[in-house]
UniProtKB/TrEMBL annotation:
This is Peptidase S1 domain-containing protein. GO terms for molecular function: serine-type endopeptidase activity. It comes from Actinoplanes auranticolor. Residues 162-375 form the Peptidase S1 domain. The keyword Flavoprotein does not apply. It comes from the Bacteria. One of its GO terms (biological process) is proteolysis. InterPro entries: Peptidase_S1_PA, Peptidase_S1_PA_chymotrypsin, Trypsin_dom, TRYPSIN_HIS, TRYPSIN_SER. Keywords: Signal.
Amino acid sequence: MSRRLALLPALLLTAVAAVAAVPGSAAAAPSGAELTRASALANDSWDTASADPDFAGMWVDDRNVPHVSYRGSATAKRSMSAGITVHSGARYTYRDLKAKRDAVSDQVRSLRKAGIHVTEWGPHVATNKLRLSVADPTPAAVEELRARFGADVEIEASEIPTDGGLFSRTNDSAPWASSAFLNDCTSGPHIKRNGSTYLLTAAHCVDFPGQVFANGGQVVGTANWVDQGDRTTDTAIITGQGGPYMYVTDSAYQVMSTTPWVAVEGSGVCFNGAYSGQICAGQKVIKTDYCTDITGRLVCGVSTAGVWGTQSAGNGDSGGPVHIKSPRWAYAGTIIGAASELQTCTRAPAPGRFCSEMVRFNSMRSILDRWGATL
């Protein structure tokens, strides 16, 4: 069975103007245990912190220390768990940053017609600024973007996305598990919606509504709901009955938590596509909650994670789960595609497959909100 994964490259290159540093190949992999503790602390503090109207963002730094920032001064009501560094004095709240992101969404097509190709746009919480990734930005383009979106916008150069960067196990049965082969892609987490249990996959894996999806010659179900419009999640619901399981090898599976995981910048995650398998070592989130049109549609709530020097996912992995292993096995999102240049895959099945070190994924919470569903 072939696998069609969504891998659209957007390799982050040298910044043209103000730009946040992107981890390089020489960077040391973070300590797994320390990263796990920091990621768990950030996740478990997210709801409390983000409920504050002055919340400006949360991230984990390169020393595996969680941070949370607020507009104005930090007060007693914002006291956080031990181990979290609290910052005050942010200019923008997180809601402000997302509003700035959405303002770019309104203009991205007109910018494209003007010859300015913005490939990603969203908040950079560590600097409290809007960050734009632009394909081959010229000084004139930078000037125009700053005029439209503010003098403090961060602008970095990115590679122009190309086709073939979308990622798509072998003989499962109902209730269907996530990270299994599903046509040319990968089965995503199960969801509960309107009293029934279904499976997710990537919308770009669906050629037409009602398309039949199979695993190992067995029919799983049909794509009856496909989120393929603008400002969507690039997810589709397959009618086959899903279960609370995720394959961690070709034959072993794990029962997953019903609580979604919030992966902030700097968090550790795992990718788990049918073709590439579970990849965890050193995988770290470097961007969150941005918008992009790499799938051919405007998709928001997207994050990027990976580690330089490791092929994190590849063709056929699209729709597969992004998750955390500790302190609980929980879903963080679903795989979209590549966020760095494509390489010939080194793991079997390798012929004809392309993989990427940095990979884009959707937020599990955004997906559940979109469909009015739970895990």
